[in-house]
Design goal:
The complex is a heterodimer of chains A (487) and B (226). Chain A is mostly helical. Chain A is built from 19 helices and 2 strands. Chain A has one domain. Chain A is 78% helix and 1% strand. The radius of gyration of chain B is 18 Å and the shape is globular. Classes of the chains: A mainly alpha (487), B mainly alpha (226).
Chain lengths: 487, 226
């Protein structure tokens, strides 16, 4: 059952990508990609439910569906679906119909590589899958071919490749750690490493973990390795920004979580968790500083991604049932919310013909419906109730108090308040400043561009007022899996 | 475990090759001309290929011969050829903007090696492998990493940055041959292919850089800040 679902989930984007390359028609390509995203979403939901029963292994243990991986897949599938709907409307505005087939082929390929990385059971193959996501998405970041997009794509591939090579070094050293226990040749699956971990040399395991953390942390966008993120997020087309922020970052976070479990088992003491918490706090700090003084509307959203990855890192770093539950819930809410924010930003950019916050005026008067959706999203992303992110941040704060990370919690609260004020101040300017009369005419966007904003906001409100018991049980299972050290 | 009971001859051969490749990394760090840079990289790859073969011979891992052949072909011939072609097309023969003079970067690189040695010495001592070739391999692995990052940081030509990335990975290959010769073959082969794809991507991107930004120096990539 789970195997068939997994196969369907991976084959759909593959077929879509290949078919886009063969047919080369923009209208057919957008439909193919849309259908593929529906299939991925329809299979990801039952897979998430099935994953709670325990891990399923395929292809001689090279592929696994475990509860954390399936959760990342679910978040990816939601963003992929929303971004596919949005891109139908958005990409038609770019007037690049003759290149659109390549956009959709890369888009489905990008979704495929993210999904593949989430099911890899072998640390080496996971590294390769993450490298593939970079290669495919580089061309999506540079798709618009403006000088800024090319600059962003270049920085993206250089910084990520350099960072991820540290992760490769960490992977090799982890293999070396394991070879003292398991002999010179073994299959480097997550479970095997975890079982061997208690007998690993703590000093070497700590070095390997730190290398992996910095390496995959670059991909997650944890500060101070985040410098590619605002450029890539702000210069790629809006649906791709949503995919980068809502899907790609999570898939790299998954790697950090998997290694965190191994480092925990390897008796490295508090080191592994404290470093992750520290990276989380630095990300929040950098996010706060750059959000307050930001001038570009999509860069604002990008720094908010740095901030939220910091919050998720804090949740996993603090750990315990509340920490893990909060971090997983935050992942889902952030994926929904950040898609909404990038869609709104894309619409505003297209309507006003500018990326600058100062050129966007009077959103409220000009776009009552779409403006209201975007503003609600802005309130949600800063952690205001009654939206999902308020609950997940609250649970992470509570976890911090329970597990003795009071210092981190106080710092987090202060920084979140600064971000709340800074972020919403930009929205005040965009909504209530009356524009100068000389501004260029404002264009409305199609309903393809507004519908996914509804689809993202409604579940956010629902998750904010009602945390289903079954979801809570799901998180408890996940936290149990992530904390019990197998004998 | 291979390194625990290694005969002295094999151990000295491994150490010799590891040190030669570290020296070649310094040659790259100290040279201003992109072509010298490229030749040093190719030579380093050949040394690593020879090292793979030597480890395969002394450790009894026949599959490492295959890795040696692939390393020599891909990293020793094909990659330098591809990068050389880009150099030819772009007409960039030397690094024009330098933050650090080559001599200063050599000194900085030396400090990197000392740092790497300190780290690996401690790790080696805690593993009970002090004084073996493992400590040397770990030192060189880490110091080539640091030298690679140094090159990425102080050089601005797009091609120097590509070569810097390749040096980063050469260090890992070198260390992996000595420390974990049994690491599954599949992964190593895929990593080799992966590099080819990376360089192909870089080739495309460099062309765009010239066409749209008008330069291949990262000093001119200054539109996106803040």
């Amino acid at each position: 059952m789970a195997g068939a679902l997994l196969l369907a989930m991976l084959v759909a984007p593959l077929i879509a990508a290949l078919a886009c390359m063969v047919i080369r028609s923009p209208r057919i390509a957008e439909k193919l990609n849309f259908v593929s995203s529906i299939v991925v979403f329809a299979t990801a939901v039952p897979l998430t439910v099935l994953s709670a029963q325990g891990p399923h292994y395929y292809l001689e243990d090279y592929v696994v569906i475990d509860i954390t991986g399936a959760w990342v897949i679910l978040c990816t599938s939601i963003v992929y679906l929303l971004a596919s709907i949005y891109s139908i409307g958005y990409m038609r505005l770019l007037d690049e119909d003759e290149k659109l087939w390549s956009f959709y082929a890369l888009f489905s390929g990008f979704a495929l590589t993210i999904l593949v990385s989430s099911v890899m059971n072998n640390a080496g193959l996971y590294w390769i899958a993450i490298e593939l996501t970079t290669l495919v998405s580089t061309f999506l970041v540079g798709f618009e071919r403006a000088a800024e997009s090319i600059e962003a794509a270049w920085k993206y591939i250089i910084i990520i490749s350099a960072g991820i090579s540290l992760a490769l070094l960490g992977t090799v050293l982890f293999y070396w750690c394991g070879s003292f226990v398991l002999g010179p040749t073994y299959d480097m699956t997550w479970d095997v490493l975890r079982q061997a971990a208690p007998k690993m040399n703590p000093a070497l395991a700590a070095l390997s973990y730190l290398l992996v953390l910095v390496g995959y942390g670059t991909k997650v966008g944890l500060a101070p390795m985040h410098s590619w993120l605002p450029d890539a997020h702000s210069e790629s087309p809006a649906p791709i920004s949503a995919m980068l922020s809502g899907a790609l970052l999570n898939s790299a976070m998954l790697g950090i979580v998997r290694y965190l479990v191994i480092a925990d088992a390897a008796q490295t003491g508090q080191l592994a968790r404290v470093t992750l918490v520290a990276f989380g706090l630095i990300s929040l700090l950098v996010g706060a500083l750059f959000i307050v003084r930001q001038t570009g509307v999509k860069r604002l959203m990008a720094y908010s991604s740095v901030e939220h990855m910091g919050v998720i890192a804090l949740g996993f770093g603090i750990g315990g049932p509340f920490g893990v539950a909060g971090a997983l819930y935050h992942m889902l809410n952030h994926s929904l919310n950040k898609s909404l924010m990038f869609f709104g930003a894309g619409n505003a950019m297209r309507s006003f013909g500018s990326k600058e916050i100062k050129n966007i005026h009077n959103m409220w008067g000009r776009f009552p419906v779409q403006g209201a959706l975007w503003l609600a999203g802005a309130a949600a992303i800063t952690g205001a109730p009654p939206f999902g992110l308020f609950l997940s941040e609250l649970v992470i704060l509570r976890a911090g108090f329970e597990r003795g990370y009071e210092w981190a919690v106080y710092a987090m609260v202060v920084l979140l308040i600064v971000i709340f004020i800074g972020f919403l101040n930009h929205f005040r300017a965009m909504y209530f400043n009356a524009g100068e009369p000389s501004t260029p005419p404002v264009k409305a966007v199609s309903s393809w561009c507004v519908a996914p904003m509804w689809l993202a906001l409604v579940p956010l409100v629902v998750f904010g007022v009602w945390w289903p018991q079954s979801l809570w049980n799901h998180f408890m299972t996940a936290s149990h899996v992530l904390s019990v050290v197998s004998p | 475990m291979l390194i625990a009971h290694l005969d002295p001859l094999a151990s000295s051969i491994f150490s010799f090759m590891a040190i030669v490749s570290l020296l070649l990394a310094f040659v790259m760090l100290g040279s201003r001309w992109l072509n010298n840079y490229l030749y040093a990289f190719a030579a380093e790859s050949w040394v690593i290929a020879a090292l793979s073969a030597a480890v395969g011979f002394y450790g009894g891992y026949p599959e490492l011969y295959l890795i040696a052949i692939l390393t020599a072909l891909f990293r020793g011939l094909l990659l330098p050829y591809l990068v050389g072609r880009i150099i030819g097309r772009l007409n960039v023969t030397r690094e024009i903007h330098e933050i650090l003079e080559p001599s200063s970067s050599l000194v900085a690189g030396a400090f990197g090696v000392i740092f790497a040695l300190t780290v690996s010495y401690r790790i080696g001592a805690s593993l009970g492998l002090a004084g073996t070739v493992a400590v040397l391999a770990l030192t060189i692995m880490l110091s080539m990493k640091l030298i690679g990052f140094l090159m990425l940081a102080v050089r601005h030509e797009a091609l120097s940055q590509i070569l810097g990335l390749l040096v980063l990975e050469n260090g890992i290959f070198l260390g992996a041959q000595i420390l974990v010769p049994g690491m599954p073959l599949l992964i190593e082969i895929v990593i080799l292919f992966d590099l080819l794809v990376v360089v192909a991507c870089f080739g495309v991107l460099v062309r765009y850089l010239v066409a749209h930004v008008g330069s291949t120096s990262s000093l001119d990539l200054n539109r996106l800040v803040g």
